[in-house]
Write the structure tokens for this entry.
Amino acid sequence: MHRKKVLIVGGYGAVGRQIAQILHDRHPDLEIILGGRSPQKAAPFESTRVQTVVVDNNADDPLLYAGDNVSLIINSVNDLQDRLLMSAVRRKIPLIDLTRWTEIFQQSITKLEKTDLYAPIVLSSGWMAGTASLFAMLHSATLQNVAVDIHALYSLRDKAGPDSAAYMDRMTIPFHITERGGKRLVFPMTDPIKVQFPDGYTAKCYRLDTPDHVTLPTAEHIDSASFRISFDSKASTSILVGLVNSGIWKMISGDRFRSLRRRLLYNPGTGSAHHILIHLKGLDHNGHWVERTIAISDPLGQTHLTALGAAVQAEKLLRISKEEPLVPGIYYPEDLPDERMDISEITNFFKQYGVLISH
């Protein structure tokens, strides 16, 4: 009987190594394979159940050296050409991906819809690996005609990998949101809403394009979804809003000024808490409008919360037996709850790792 093997692409990175540690500690019989372009690096922790392999998402076949009997792939680095994605599809291996901004996310869906799938593909690229959308779904399931507003407080002092800064290159690109009246084109860093976060910090939050806008409205009971962000430095938030709305940010777009843009907002520190506030408004079973607020705080920061968002998706897939497989197809993070993992178990999973959740 073969042990289950999980391949974590980007397993040396800030998010990947935390996913590896979580799954390693939860599953004593699980083998962990860390994939990256430099496998000569030392593994982030020592274990006889951890090995390394070359995986390059820019190669024609990223999984060429991954070996056989891989049970699950978790991707935590950019796969802009869908090479890893399609390599997994060809091998019929379940995959969880955390890395796609909305344009690439929709590109991937279009490809997958034209392809025969023989395993589940979980596109979990929403905020914090879909954690925000997941909890929006959990707490809106008993309502109808729901409007979802997600607000995130991004700490400039938090740990972060370079892929986490990709959103900076999309600050001048308009995007569609779904509202009760249909789709509407909006721009990043507009339509501010004042929000008080779980730690008491109050700030204006501005629109940002994330895959949550795409996935949440596909649920029958959700009519609209919006995502907004603020930084824990009011000066940095104001500077960014000014640069974007004045057109200066567009002038410094492109590869030539990428390092300048990164210096303005990507200076990761040693760590800081991450906060999310989710506001729901919908009709209850009596036809009355109700509002619900869910506050999520991870004292260990955004990379830890992202790792947990990936790990909880993996937890479900690792539990599935060959006798009762998950139907092949495209899944979103908020599709997680079912008879295998209900709202209580999912919530307790996050709380077990120190995440504070109130509603």
